[in-house]
């Protein structure tokens, strides 16, 4: 039996910096059965796709020196609670470690400032500093153990990371200080200086920085929390004629679920009994409740406002629309835009380079520095190691992506991956499908022009019977028109959809043909005297279609699909951002021109086939445009897949949504402008973070190495380096959280 590919989420323990990301992802990708692995360093989680077992994934992570724990995502609430509990426990541990380290480090720092040099010259000073050295070792064990264990694991795996730098820096300072205490004669008198305060303070400050970072990171998950908060926790199911209240994870497919007024819909389903109104604003953004009766669909997370209903569960657990939205947001938050992958590559080489610079700095001081040269060498090498930890570089991208994707979700915009997030900010041309994208997608029959003395009811009956086999919105309009007039539909045979032209079938031994003028010409139907009438209807923004019976034109049926109330203002927003807007439609030229004019679009292409849409995307791309494509139908899928960024209207077909990079859940074109605005804000935030992190590391290393000493006599302290390193990470986290204040333009 063939294994089914699925997603698994793991919490990674011991990943201290961005250089860890590449190693963990590499180990997972090398595991048999793994298709992809994307780690979110900011969240310390990794999502793995493929057929590999959880145990194999955990072994792969452990093989490169880290620990992993699976997150059970059968319940999004439980998964988030588990993650938050783990973060909270780690936060409390780090704060305890900080207290222990700073309890020793701060008094020692004050002593060094007040008294001055922390030298070893007498036996009393030796005994005193020996005691301090032992206490400092206690700090290293209790508060800094995770750094040394991580460094040892990295060493065993022939690699280096942030833990390596901190362990080397603090370890070097402590070992040198103990040499001074135990063998002062081995060290020149001027160099008999201990650095226990540096070791304790560095560990304390970095632990404090990590703790505050975890607390700040919690704010980035607010969007996911809000989505999860939409889920009901329990459901009332009817089993063996008895009502039973169970957790939503226990609801089974085809269970009969009872929902009372004021309760949330627990799973997706179809109404069996009752009538109510449902608040679907969480999905559609529409404040008005939607009436629901028998055979209507209900969606998990929406709110039952009035009546009691019974419905059959059709999608449960991870398959509900809400669960898929939550999963999509999680995956997007874990994905990396191209700019982030570049940062990961830099980080992978950064630590070894820093270690080399540290050694070179020490050698330079030993050979060219003033006395005590060894003391200066120790200080500069330690400071370089501490200040250069690439934590900020690793956080720069994932923190911004987490917040940006979350803000987009709040606006009803679901971004599939980091690449789409980045590319959306560069879009120069936006192609819009007409039906269901610019227009409501709920067309109505407006005119029936009979070609000969036939009964309108008979014509509508045959036309509706034929179109009942099609999913096209225009076809559905004709079917609905017949049903509204209580016209029964007839059985059809040999139904055939001719893409881009129309449909044909037989009914009661009559050959039926319905479609555009091209289809009529193709089949040899005479349109003499009726083309002008069709054009007249088209100029009124109506779509005229021809209906033929047994080789003769029977009628022209016109359908109008009104433009969405906010499409015109949304298109203006796109154009105001310098984006070229183009409308594509399979409709005739006259109707397309009328709709484009009303919508404020100067460029349009009519009578296009599905492949024509894809060809137009390709043509624009070859002309240097970054192309966005927005559609909601099956015939839009090829163009959506080919576009630089494909946008699907969430109310459309599953095929279109699956083909898209970004889904607009609320069906409004303002979602396009919102998505682009969020994309630009997020990318700007990422660049700010990367610039800050890069400048910090590039500028910090020369200062740490002592570039200021020849000119101003200033040599950076390892303690200051530790504080700066912690502060740089906090700065990145805080800047990313500024995105939470981002608001899409009111519309």
TrEMBL record:
EC number: 7.2.2.8
Compartments where found: Cell membrane
Major subcellular location class: membrane
Keyword terms: ATP-binding, Cell membrane, Copper, Copper transport, Ion transport, Membrane, Metal-binding, Nucleotide-binding, Phosphoprotein, Translocase, Transmembrane, Transmembrane helix, Transport
Molecular function as annotated in GO: ATP binding; ATP hydrolysis activity; copper ion binding; P-type divalent copper transporter activity; P-type monovalent copper transporter activity
HMA domain boundaries: 6-69
One Gene Ontology term from the biological process aspect of the record: copper ion homeostasis
Cellular component aspect of the GO annotation: plasma membrane
Chain ranges passing through the membrane: 98-115, 127-144, 165-183, 195-212, 346-368, 374-397, 690-709, 715-733
Presence of keyword Transmembrane helix: yes
InterPro entries: ATPase_P-typ_cyto_dom_N, ATPase_P-typ_P_site, ATPase_P-typ_TM_dom_sf, ATPase_P-typ_transduc_dom_A_sf, ATPase_P-type_domA, HAD-like_sf, HAD_sf, HMA_dom
Pfam families xref list: E1-E2_ATPase, HMA, Hydrolase
Membrane topology: Multi-pass membrane protein
Enzyme superclass (EC): translocase
Keyword Cell membrane: yes
NCBIfam families: ATPase-IB1_Cu, ATPase-IB_hvy, ATPase_P-type
Family under the similarity heading: Belongs to the cation transport ATPase (P-type) (TC 3.A.3) family. Type IB subfamily.
PANTHER family: ATP7, ISOFORM B (PTHR43520), COPPER-EXPORTING P-TYPE ATPASE (PTHR43520:SF6)
Name this protein carries in UniProt: Copper-exporting P-type ATPase
């Amino acid at each position: 039996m063939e294994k089914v590919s699925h997603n698994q989420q793991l919490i990674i323990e011991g990943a201290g910096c961005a250089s860890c990301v590449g190693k963990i992802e590499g180990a997972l990708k090398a595991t048999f059965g793994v298709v992809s692995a994307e780690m979110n360093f900011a969240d310390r989680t990794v999502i793995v796709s493929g057929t590999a077992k959880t145990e194999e994934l955990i072994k792969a992570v452990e093989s490169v020196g880290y620990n992993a724990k699976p997150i059970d995502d059968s319940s999004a609430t439980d998964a988030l609670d588990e993650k938050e509990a783990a973060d909270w426990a780690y936060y409390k541990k780090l704060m305890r470690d900080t207290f222990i380290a700073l309890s020793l480090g701060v008094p020692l720092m004050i002593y060094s400032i007040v008294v001055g040099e922390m030298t070893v010259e007498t036996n009393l000073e030796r005994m005193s500093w020996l005691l301090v050295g032992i206490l400092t070792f206690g700090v290293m064990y209790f508060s800094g153990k995770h750094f040394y264990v991580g460094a040892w694991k990295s060493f065993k795996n022939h690699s280096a990371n942030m833990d390596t730098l901190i362990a080397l820096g603090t370890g070097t300072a402590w070992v040198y200080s103990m040499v001074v205490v135990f063998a002062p004669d081995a060290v020149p008198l001027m160099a008999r200086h201990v650095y226990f305060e540096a070791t304790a303070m560095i560990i304390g400050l970095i632990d404090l920085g990590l703790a505050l970072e975890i607390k700040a990171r919690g704010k980035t998950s607010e969007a996911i929390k809000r989505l999860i908060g939409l889920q009901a926790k329990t459901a009332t199911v009817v089993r063996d004629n008895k009502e039973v209240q169970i957790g939503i994870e226990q609801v089974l497919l085809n269970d009969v679920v009872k929902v009372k007024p004021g309760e949330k819909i627990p799973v997706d389903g179809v109404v069996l009994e009752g009538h109510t109104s449902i608040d679907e604003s969480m999905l559609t953004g529409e404040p008005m409740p939607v009436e629901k009766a028998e055979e209507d669909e209900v969606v998990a997370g929406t709110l039952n406002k009035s009546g009691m209903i019974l419905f059959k569960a059709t999608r449960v657990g991870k398959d509900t629309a809400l669960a898929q939205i939550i999963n999509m947001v999680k995956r997007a938050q874990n994905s990396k835009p191209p700019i982030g992958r570049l940062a990961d590559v830099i980080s992978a080489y950064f630590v070894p380079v820093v270690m080399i610079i540290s050694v070179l700095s020490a050698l330079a001081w030993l050979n060219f520095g003033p006395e005590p040269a060894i003391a200066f060498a120790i200080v500069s090498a330690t400071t370089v190691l501490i200040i250069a930890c690439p934590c900020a570089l690793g956080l720069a991208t994932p923190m911004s992506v987490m917040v940006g994707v979350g803000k987009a979700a709040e606006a009803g915009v679901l971004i599939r991956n980091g690449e789409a997030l980045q590319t959306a900010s560069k879009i120069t041309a936006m192609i819009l499908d007409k039906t269901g994208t610019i227009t409501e997608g709920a067309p109505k029959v407006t005119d029936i022009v009979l070609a000969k003395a036939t009964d309108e009811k008979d014509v509508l009956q045959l036309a509706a019977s034929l179109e009942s086999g099609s999913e096209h919105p225009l076809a559905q309009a004709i079917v609905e028109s017949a049903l509204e007039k209580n016209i029964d539909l007839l059985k059809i045979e040999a139904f055939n959809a001719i893409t881009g032209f129309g449909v044909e079938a037989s009914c009661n031994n009559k050959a039926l043909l319905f479609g555009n003028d091209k289809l009529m010409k193709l089949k040899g139907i005479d349109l003499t005297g009726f083309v002008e009438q069709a054009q007249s209807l088209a100029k009124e923004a109506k779509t005229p279609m021809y209906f033929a019976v047994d080789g003769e034109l029977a009628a022209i049926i016109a359908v109008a699909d009104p433009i969405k109330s906010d499409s015109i203002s949304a298109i203006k927003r796109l154009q105001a951002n310098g984006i070229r807007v183009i409308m594509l439609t399979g409709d005739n030229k006259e109707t397309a021109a009328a709709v484009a004019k009303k919508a404020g679009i100067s460029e349009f292409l009519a009578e296009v086939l599905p492949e024509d849409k894809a060809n137009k995307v390709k043509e624009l791309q070859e002309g240097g445009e970054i192309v966005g494509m927005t559609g909601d139908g099956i015939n839009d899928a090829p163009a959506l897949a080919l576009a630089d960024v494909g946008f699907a209207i969430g109310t459309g077909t599953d095929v279109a949504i699956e083909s898209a990079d970004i889904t607009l859940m609320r069906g409004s074109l303002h979602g396009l402008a919102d998505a682009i605005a969020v994309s630009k804000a997020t990318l700007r935030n990422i660049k700010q973070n990367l610039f800050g992190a890069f400048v910090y590391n590039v500028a910090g290393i020369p200062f740490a190495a002592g570039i200021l000493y020849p000119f101003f006599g200033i040599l950076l302290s390892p303690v200051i380096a530790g504080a700066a390193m912690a502060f740089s990470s906090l700065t990145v986290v805080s800047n990313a959280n500024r995105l939470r204040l981002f608001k899409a333009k009111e519309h």
